[in-house]
Write a structure and sequence with these properties.
alpha/beta; 2-enoyl-CoA Hydratase, Chain A, domain 1; 3-stranded parallel sheet; 12 helices; 9 strands; globular; lipid metabolism; Delta(3)-Delta(2)-enoyl-CoA isomerase
Length: about 240
């Protein structure tokens, strides 16, 4: 599912394999366990890089797995929200090295990091909800509003389902930087991580300041109306 490598004070979490890294409970649990390990092991100023093998960074929720039972979608949402909460509270800088497509929940996973770096030669960012006839959860939008400064760019991402390439994403202020290929993107992420670690910041202060910065996102993570309503309706129907 994923591996965790430590290079000095830098942790590199890699989604492994050549699939599209759909966010089902198994993968989400694997990522969350790695993040918890980073939290427990780090004793000095550190940084976390998240990246992936293959064509995809992550193609979002595993909708094929969840379509047979609404409770499965509720479970995926709950686990992704817990992972995002963990990333927001992690006491170190976080960097997403996006080396392939990042769609819907995969886009959100990338944007849950402090910095997003992306390869130029392949891949795009894509909020697919308009195209697949799904409502975007409020907590997705809250996070995106904190990461995308331009209202026009946010509109195009959410309401036009624009497939944003790396260079366009830099121009729109959606990501931090763009790089020639997958290896170059990860190398750039390592260089950035090294620069941030050298600042010798107090990790707990860093994490608390991030929580202040994303103060409107944290309460939104307690609820996902796009699945809770389905679950409530399912519960009512089971009682009839």
């Amino acid at each position: 599912m994923c591996t965790l490598e430590k290079r000095g004070d830098i942790y590199i979490l890699t989604l492994t394999g050549d699939d599209d890294h759909r966010l089902n409970p198994t993968l989400l649990d694997s990522i969350t366990a790695a993040v918890h390990r980073v939290r427990s092991e780090s004793t000095a100023p550190s940084a976390l890089i998240t990246t992936a093998h293959g064509k995809f960074f992550s193609n979002g929720y595993d909708l094929a797995w969840s379509q047979s039972d609404p409770q499965r979608h509720i479970l995926m949402s709950s686990k992704l929200r817990l992972l995002v909460r963990d990333l927001i509270s992690l006491p170190m800088p976080t960097i997403a090295a996006v080396t392939g497509h990042a769609s819907a929940g995969g886009f959100i996973l990338a944007q849950a990091h402090d910095y997003v770096l992306m390869r130029k030669d392949r891949g795009f960012l894509y909020m697919s909800e308009m195209d697949i006839k799904l409502v975007v959860p409020d907590w997705f939008v809250k996070l995106l509003k904190n990461r995308i400064g331009s209202a026009a760019a946010l509109r195009d991402v959410v309401l036009r389902a624009e497939k944003v390439t790396a260079e366009a994403a830099v121009a729109k202020g959606i990501i931090y930087s763009a790089h020639d290929g997958a290896a170059e993107t990860v190398e750039a992420a390592v260089r950035l991580a090294e620069e941030l670690v050298k600042r010798n910041w107090d990790g707990e202060v860093y994490g608390r300041n991030r929580k202040v910065l994303l103060g409107d996102v944290l309460p939104a993570l307690n609820f996902d109306e796009t699945v809770e309503d389905v679950g409530h309706a399912n519960l009512l129907s089971s009682r009839l």
